[in-house]
Amino acid sequence: MNKHTENWLIQASYDFDTARALRQSGRNVYTVHMCHLAIEKALKGLLFEVTAEVPPKTHSLVLLVNKSGKKPDEKIGKFLLQLNDASVSTRYPEDFSQLLATYTDLLTDSIIIQTEEVLKWIKKQL
To answer: Residue 8 sits in a domain of what CATH number?
Structure first.
């Protein structure tokens, strides 16, 4: 594995650990944001490994997975779309109170679990 790929994966793991710590403290909005960031960095590592090119400066999970040429199963694909859509609202919320109500403990726990599944899938693609 290329050292740049490894660096992206280390960052992804660190961000996912941060997401879990934020979840433990009840910071669900930022948990979701960090889950997105963890997957984004893991996908950038995958993209670098596949293309040997510096990944684009984007937050789009859909773009990154498409550029990698890897095809996730339907469940992972749908989750990537869902998390991709959550990216802007968790970064720049228009109505923070509504965002807090949206990301319940149950939903956020589900996002953590699905993020872990995606990260495992990405590692299998390397």
So the answer is: 1.20.120.330
Residue 51 sits at φ, ψ, to 5 deg, of: -105, -20
d(CA 126, CA 121): 9
Q: pLDDT by residue for the chain (126 residues), tens digit each?
A: 999 999 999 999 999 999 999 999 999 999 999 999 999 999 999 999 999 999 999 999 999 999 999 999 999 999 999 999 998 888 889 999 999 999 999 999 999 999 999 999 999 999
Q: What share of the chain is helix, strand, coil (3-state, %, to 5)?
A: 80, 0, 20
The span from the first CA to the last CA of the chain, in angstroms, equals 8
